[in-house]
Amino acid sequence: MDVIFLLLLFFMLSSTFTSFAQVKIGNPAGSGGRGAVPQAMLVLDQARLMLNGREIAQTDLYAKAQALQTREIDRLLVLVRGETTTQQLMTVMDQLSNIHGLTIIVAGPE
Predict the structure, then answer these.
(1) Distances 62 to 22, 27, 45, 102 between C-alpha atoms, Å
(2) Residue 89: exposed, middle, or buried by beta-carbon count in 10 A (0-12, 13-18, 19+)?
């Protein structure tokens, strides 16, 4: 019985259940105005997404963000508002990070 427990413990500790990913985020413009100005804005307010003032569905985010690049928009400001969770932000960031050439700038409430 002890051997089975030790083997179980060994395999649990030596295996990886999830793989961690990194999301690259652009630096916001400083107070001196030296940073690049975002050309589009995505507001994330809990489960609501608004791209340039128009509400969009989570499932449409990738296609709408890709459409920005056809209009030569390569910098997107993601504004986090309300009771938005970190998981909601990371879901959005994961979708946006798959778009090559799009610089993402995240700003919070404060």
Answers:
(1) 18, 22, 17, 12
(2) middle
Distance (Å, rounded) from C-alpha 49 to C-alpha 42?
7
When pLDDT is cut at 50, 70 and 90, the band that residue 2 belongs to is: confident
- Global pTM value: 0.66
CA distance 58 to 95: 10
Helix (H, G, I), strand (E, B) or coil at 105: strand
> Residue 33 has what DSSP assignment?
S
CB 62 within 8 A of CB 26: no
d(CA 59, CA 49): 10
